Amino acid sequence: MSDSEEYRFQVNLSGMIDILSNHLYSSPRVFLRELLQNATDAITARLDSEPGHRGEVFVELAGSGENSTLLLQDNGVGLTEDDVHEFLAMIGHSSKRGGAELLGETSFIGRFGIGLLSCFMVSDEIVMLTQSASGGPSIEWRGRPDGTYTLRKLESSLTPGTKVYLRAKPETDLFFEAGTVELDLLHYGALLPYPIRLAEGGRERRINPEPPAWIFSPNLADVHRDEVLRFGEERLGERFRDFIPLRTANGRTGGIAYVLPHAVNLNAKRSHKVYLKRMLISEQADNILPEWAFFVKCLIWTDELQPTASREHFYENEQLERVRGELGESIRSELIGMGASDQQRLRRILELHALSMKSLAVEDDEFYRMIYRWLPFESTYGHKTLGELLDERRTLYYTASLDHYRQLRHVASAQSLLVVNGGYIYEAELLQSLPRIVSGADTRRLLPEDVSLAFTDLNAEERSATLQAARAADLSLQRFRCRVLLKRFKPTELPALFTLPEEAATLRSIERAGEESPQAFASVLGSLGGSMQGSAQSILYLNLNNPVVDKLFAGPPNAKLPTLVEMLYANALMMGHYPMSRQELALLNAGILSLIDWSMESEQGGE
Ligand SMILES: Nc1ncnc2c1ncn2[C@@H]1O[C@H](COP(=O)(O)OP(=O)(O)OP(=O)(O)O)[C@@H](O)[C@H]1O
């Protein structure tokens, strides 16, 4: 035991920098964010001991191309010699957290002790001149990516604070250009409460305007509507027309949810800009609002969430869960409020973002109750809101799939039957739960075969006149497990209606999969399908009100009848958007050829 020796891990700094630049940070551009954030933290630390202190950041650019340099100066707490050895030179060590506690609360943004290394993405040396506000000599520190550094005490004292100098590496001078730096400083620091000034080419200007009062008191936002909208356009790059103020109960997180001026895809990436302690930390936070809130893009400020080391996300912890819930609640209650007092506004939002509203309503009865009147649906009476549909009928029939709706649409409208399409996402669930939400309302799911109940049977005379032909027709589709029934129904233009009970539909898809799959799999599918075959028959209703069908069944069956019935069958499948099997496609193909052949024969016969 005793002859073992103890060694220390060595850190290969250039390897670490490589990891940071290629795997942690999205772009070298973030070095400015890290510097600005260190400056902000240093000012916050100084304010602790000197509450009246007025923080300032000064940035100066000089030279051009490969000789470009950048200075970022703050008047924060600065560093003593001991601090430099402890915090600057020890990677992963930070002055901003108590002990080893990485996730605890602090008043600072930084916590990992690695941010400064991001400067090595754009510069081969970091030069820091610093004077601690607690006294002691001024220090010059020079750090290099090979892991070495020098430290020198300066003869004259600087004013308290820190200056960081960087010289552009080849090919990174773009990040030192005045236009880029100005944009980035504004990007990251637009809400900082102290001035950031930029000097270059003999010019000096303030970059960040005074943050408006409503920013940290969202209840003032409504009074400054135009300003809030303009701010959203500047920071998020879109022209908005509406917004919802956000706040949590403890007031530590707030913001503005801008209502997107265009419809968005359900799967679209949701990215919000989040300011931590007033600095832009994350531009693509996607976990800070509930999933359903995909119709807004937000500017959010918080001092209670913890960013990950890349700063691009926030830790999924209880705090984030609470904040997410409360921000969602802000949106939800504003929408509910609109339902009561500003229906025009709610309607406008709903017209664009019905999908989002439906996804929220599915999960939240209270919300559904407040907004159901304005939710749009497709129906055989046209596009209407649920309120309008309920004004028409207290009992609503709906289909649960788009294909069912397509099949039923014509027959139902011809019979003035109000059928609502519940085939799009969330709709069938919403329609099913409607009676729970609205007293006196009733909804019933409709299948294509239910509509066939409204068909008129043939009378005894018609039945015996068509008996033989009907049998021949029925026989012609037996191999597709489809029964043929003669009825009369509206609309007369519709010759045939294909209906598929649930089991038959399952069997159809098993068979189609079997067609596509290799032999072994197909045989498994085959035996599976076989066990269902008895009960799974589809029905093709042929409409004797239709003149062509009527002609087809007048008199004894002729030789062409089976082919013509097969064509009606294929046509009805297509009308109902059913995927066709290879056998059915072949049927269609052969049928078309026969039709061409017959028409030519009859022309030749007529010549
Ligand atoms: N401008 C500054 N003024 C005073 N101290 C500074 C300044 N910049 C850096 N430091 C010191 O150097 C330490 C390391 O900084 P670095 O940016 O690497 O990490 P951090 O800010 O602590 O954490 P993070 O990696 O989360 O940004 C800081 O903890 C702080 O003590």
UniProtKB/TrEMBL annotation:
InterPro entries: HATPase_C_sf, Hsp90_fam, Hsp90_N, Ribosomal_Su5_D2-typ_SF. Pfam families: HATPase_c_3, HSP90. This is HSP90 family protein. ATP binds at E34, N38, D74, T162. The keyword Nucleotide-binding applies. Keywords: ATP-binding, Chaperone, Nucleotide-binding. The keyword Transcription does not apply. Belongs to the heat shock protein 90 family. The lineage of its organism: Bacteria, Bacillati, Bacillota, Bacilli, Bacillales. One of its GO terms (molecular function) is ATP hydrolysis activity.
